[in-house]
């Protein structure tokens, strides 16, 4: 939970029936919390891109904010499905981890965090998942190849977009927005079922940090300092 509903860190929470999705049998409770809302959002982004027709053969894809919760699961999912992934991060010291999780290339986000040089730049990416918005997404929009698709869901890098109509009408770019909370229940169900079957991340538990409730404040401080890496799961005794 989160946003307008308290109880996200509670062991029990009471919610309206229409918010509930049945957990697939082939996914443990603990695995489902390794995904959490960030993982669901990554899955919804991926689903949108696959429905658009994006395939590994189309070329390189990117994930921005890649050491964050949405980013790290997006990287693992893309990699599981055979995509060549460029991981865009502010933490270049995590290059080894990102390559172990399947990144082909690791790019410093500072290289993209600047005003647009041109509304159309070298076409590199066939698609991508963006968790940061702002100047980084603005530059990525200009660096897409023909018929590319981007799914965006976050705004840690800024709320504004500086773009033009050119990538859309000269390269046929599609930009999809993802809202996990209000997605249709059947769409959420489809994504959770994928997590339990064809998108199953066998090694997800190895890449999650388990903590007790008491450790939560210091982990939140790490997020605010921009030092957190990947997903953190609260384990109750
Ligand atoms: N639309 C939805 O339904 C939905 C659902 C869940 C989350 N979200 C949003 O998606 C975003 C990511 O969520 P999350 O759970 O992955 O958050 P997170 O775990 O805090 O990760 C965010 C990542 O963004 C990067 N970052 C941090 N500060 C930045 C800055 N100033 N400029 C550019 N990049 C920066 C960092 O990765 P690097 O150091 O690797 O660059 C960081 O790990 C948030 O904005 C969140 O609110 C949206």
Question: What order do the helices and strands come in, and which of them pair?
Answer:
Blueprint (H helix, E strand, L loop, with lengths): L28 H24 L8 E4 L4 H12 L4 E5 L5 H6 L2 E6 L16 E6 L3 H8 L2 E9 L13 H5 L3 E4 L7 H12 L11 E4 L4 H9 L6 E4 L3
The chain binds NADP nicotinamide-adenine-dinucleotide phosphate.
NADP nicotinamide-adenine-dinucleotide phosphate binds next to α1 and α2.
What this model shows, in words?
With 237 residues, the protein is an alpha/beta fold. The protein has a single domain, classed as NAD(P)-binding Rossmann-like Domain (Rossmann fold), CATH 3.40.50.720. Helices cover 32% and strands 18% of the residues. It has 7 helices and 8 strands, in the order αβαβαββαβαβαβαβ. Strands 3-2-1-4-5-6 form a 6-stranded parallel sheet, with helices on both faces. The site of NADP nicotinamide-adenine-dinucleotide phosphate (NAP) has 29 residues, from helix 1 and helix 2. The site of NADP nicotinamide-adenine-dinucleotide phosphate has 29 residues, from helix 1 and helix 2.
Brief summary of the model shown:
The chain has helices spanning 29-52, 69-80, 95-100, 134-141, 166-170, 185-196, 216-224, and strands at 61-64, 85-89, 103-108, 125-130, 144-152, 174-177, 208-211, 231-234.
Characteristics:
single chain, 237 residues, alpha/beta, Rossmann fold, six-stranded parallel beta sheet, two-stranded parallel ribbon, 18% strand, globular, binds NADP nicotinamide-adenine-dinucleotide phosphate
Query: What structural category arises from helix and sheet content?
Result: alpha/beta
What is the CA-based Rg, rounded? 18 Å
CATH fold-level topology: Rossmann fold
Strand order of the biggest β-sheet: 3-2-1-4-5-6
| Apparent shape | globular
Distance between the termini: 21 Å
What would CATH call the architecture? Answer: 3-Layer(aba) Sandwich
- The CATH first-level class comes to Alpha Beta
Largest sheet geometry: 6 strands, parallel
Number of helices: 7
SSE string, helix = H, strand = E?
Answer: HEHEHEEHEHEHEHE
Ligand catalogue = NADP nicotinamide-adenine-dinucleotide phosphate
Task: Determine the CATH superfamily.
Answer: NAD(P)-binding Rossmann-like Domain
Low-confidence stretches: none
Mean pLDDT: 95
Beta-strand residue percentage: 15-25%
Overall strand count: 8
What is the helix fraction of residues, given as a range? 25-40%
Number of domains: 1
């Amino acid at each position: 939970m989160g946003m307008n509903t308290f109880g996200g860190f509670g062991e029990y929470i009471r919610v309206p029936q229409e918010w509930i999705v049945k957990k697939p049998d082939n996914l443990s409770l603990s695995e489902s919390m390794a995904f959490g809302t960030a993982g669901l959002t990554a899955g919804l982004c991926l689903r949108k891109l696959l429905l658009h027709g994006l395939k590994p053969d189309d070329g390189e894809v990117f994930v921005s904010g890649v050491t964050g919760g949405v980013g790290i699961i997006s990287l693992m999912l893309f990699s599981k499905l055979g995509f060549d992934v460029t991981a865009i991060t502010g933490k270049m010291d995590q290059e080894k981890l990102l390559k172990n999780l399947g990144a082909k290339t690791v790019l410093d986000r500072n290289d993209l965090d600047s005003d647009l040089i041109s509304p159309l730049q070298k076409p590199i990416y066939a698609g991508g998942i963006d968790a940061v918005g702002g100047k980084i997404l603005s530059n990525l929009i200009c660096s897409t190849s023909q018929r590319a698709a981007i799914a965006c869901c976050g705004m840690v890098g800024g709320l504004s977009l500086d773009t033009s109509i050119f990538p859309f009408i000269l390269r046929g770019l599609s930009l999809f927005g993802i809202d996990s909370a209000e997605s249709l229940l059947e769409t959420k169900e489809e994504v959770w079922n994928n997590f339990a079957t064809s998108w199953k991340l066998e090694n997800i538990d190895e890449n999650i940090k388990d903590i007790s409730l008491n450790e939560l404040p210091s982990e939140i401080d790490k997020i605010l300092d921009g030092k957190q890496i990947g997903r953190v799961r609260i384990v109750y005794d």
